[in-house]
Design brief:
Number of domains: 1
Shape: elongated
Largest sheet: none
Oligomer: single chain
Number of strands: 0
Helix content: over 70%
Low-confidence stretches: none
Amino acid sequence: MLLSFVLGIALGLSLMIVAVALTPARVMRRSVAIIVEDRRETLLYGGLAAALGIGLGLGITLMLS
């Protein structure tokens, strides 16, 4: 139960990173846009890879319990 809760939170955070990477710079605060500008592709692929891995782990955890 606790493991699925923690994995769910981690999945949500990784999807938030993907959402930030996909948000246009004109919509973001300037301080965030400066940080994301050069790392947009890395954040997107890293967030997607983390979300897929965490989702797989969450699915396995829910199937086994």
